[in-house]
Amino acid sequence: MTMHGRTPRQDRTQARVRARGVAAVLALLALGASGLTACSADRPGPEKAAQALAEGIASGDLAGVTFAAGSPDVATINQVRTDAFAGLAPWTPSVEAGTAVVDPKDEDAATVELSYSWDVGAGKWTYTTTARLARDAEDAWRTTWLPSLLAPDLVDGETLTVERVAAERATVVGTGGTPIVEPRPVVRVGVDKTRVDAAGQDAAARALAGALGMDADAYAAKVAAAGAKAFVEAIVVRADDPAYDTDALGSITGVNLVSDTIPLAPTRTFARPVLGTVGEATAEIVEQSEGAIVAGDQTGLSGLQRQYDAQLRGLPGVTIRATSADGAAVRELFHVEPIAGTPLETTLDVDLQTTAEQILSAVTPASAIVALRPSTGEVLAVASGAGGEGMSTATLGQYAPGSTFKVVSTLALLRSGLTPDSTVSCPTSITVDGRAFENFPGYPTEHNGDIPLSTAFANSCNTAFIGARDQATQPALVDAAGALGLVPDASLGFASFLGAVPEQAEGTAHAASMIGQGQVLASPLGMATVAASVAAGHQVVPVLVHPVEGAAPDATTAATTAATTAATTAATTTAAADVTPLTAAEAESLHALMRGVVTDGGATLLQGVPGEPVAAKTGTAQAGEGDALHNHVWMIAIQGDLAVAVFVETGEYGSTTAGPLMDAFLRSAAAQAL
Fold it and tell me: Helices 216-225 and 198-212, interaxial angle, to 10°?
């Protein structure tokens, strides 16, 4: 009670009455002078103040909020909010103000419920807090500041902290569910600073670096900068890797060997350029993840492991606690268990992939073997040789396909009215706009002159195809290439390039296109697709990854899966809509012509391959100039429900360099099928 027997509320009300009375008298005087009448405006409700509070807490800037007398200044309140939520960064809350409820006994008092939502790991943390507001003499709504506005029962000095538990990373599987990337035993090798005194740590680091062929100065500096009891990892090796003598490494003073398991493929090289690698998240990955990944997390670093990381890594378990300033009092506010990742299903055949890599192991230049199943488009093998230095030559290489492209040129010629029996001219050379084109050295002279198109195809007569260029325009070549699956800019759900044929080319450029040179480009995957389309009798779209419906436990993965499926569908639809579809009759003619290459042409070495008859096409394309002039060599083949492309960046001819590799692969595939 006041000294006059009135409460503060009565004083506040009477003050407002007096203020409104004076204002009303002035208004009436003004209106009387003009002969007009009016009503006073409604008093403001608490809604805007409640909304400003919700927005200020969400953003971290509460400058737009009017606080009650006795509250800390806005800068202090902002800092309290920042400190309380700092442990949850980079997560930020979504805060919404509910309907403000005015006290039925006091129109100048109201409460509003603030609804919080945090996307954290494997769950969504939601809760509510209650704010109290009061209207002052100037009709402004003021908020009573309390730390409990930020989180349930939060008090001065308490802050929020988070503990994460990584989810189990899922495996990558191949055809039939065969595990490809799964946890495999490894040994982490490094200097353990608890095993050597400070004076000997530099020597230990340099000794280990020397044994591993590492930069000794850099590793020694890393050891010196680590904590007093740190284990400073130098390398992680497979437990059974014969390239490393872990016992000898462990005998170095101060070195420790730590057994562990990490997701690995069957071998160090197994489809590595395509599958990618897993390792500790980089700073860039952490920043881009917006809180989904933190420093120290294992994550995909490249290839499919990176592209489908959200699906594979799952969602971490999270525990959020309120901790007092001295750390003595800890309250658990939220907990959710981790959700394991979902396996990534690929179409790779482990045995065929291993075979392809073994065959390429002795090839020095960049090389590739790609195998597809024509009936489904499934990619069974995508092997890239060591000469590519880590690049996926199989799926991303861009090379002139040489005479393997004559499958495309022949389709264009067939569509112009020619048949395999049509006569074409195969001179020893042909000149176009002053440039002379010749056949490959050693071309069988008995097949010069006027010969059937089938013979020109089997023996790869360049001059015959160039001579027929007027019957296969450049747009016709583009259309035929698309019909056989060479679709530019196709999105297949993995990093890939199929091929590109210039839409416009005249003179020598068009002549070069007829024999797969000039500006025509293709990847081994693209040429395997051409062969697969011939075998299937329709355009084939390569499939390497099978998106799993419902596999994505979070929005990021769901979006990735949906985008991948949509992109693959779009590639198929676009290709089908933009090109003249390959007919069964056309495919049958091309298949017969390719069979002729094995029976009577440049791929006779494949005649002895066991199993169904083999059909093939050789290819050689010149690249470089002067002393750097060399041949890209190719061979594509079909056998039953198998289509294969073999490529070597530098070789002699398709028949002599790529041919033996193709023969070895087909024989091994036939043996595995038994």
Answer: 140
- Which DSSP string corresponds to 167-228? PPPPPEE-GGG-EEEEEEEEEEEEEETTSS-HHHHHHHHHHHHHHHT--HHHHHHHHHHS-T
pLDDT per residue as tens digits for the range 147-191: 999 999 999 999 999 999 999 999 999 999 999 988 999 999 999
Model confidence over 215-270: pLDDT tens digits? 999 999 999 999 999 999 999 999 989 999 999 999 999 999 999 998 888 988 99
Q: What is the CA radius of gyration of the chain?
A: 37
Under CATH, which architecture does the 47-157 domain have?
A: Roll (3.10)
Instruction: Tell me which of 2.60.40, 3.40.1350, 3.90.1310, 3.30.70 is the CATH number of domain 172-317.
Output: 3.90.1310
Packing angle between helix 406-415 and helix 474-483, nearest 10 degrees? 110
| CB contact burial 241-271 (16+ within 10 A = b; e otherwise) | eeebebeebeebebbbeeeeebbbbbeebbb
Strand intervals (E) in 329-399: 330-336, 344-346, 367-373, 378-384
pTM equals: 0.81
Separation of alpha carbons 182 and 343, rounded Å: 10
Check: CB of residue 483 under 8 Å from CB of residue 476: no
Angle at Cα 43 formed by Cα 41 and Cα 44, nearest 5°? 120
**Amino acid of residue 141:** W
Six-digit token string for 528: 């395997």
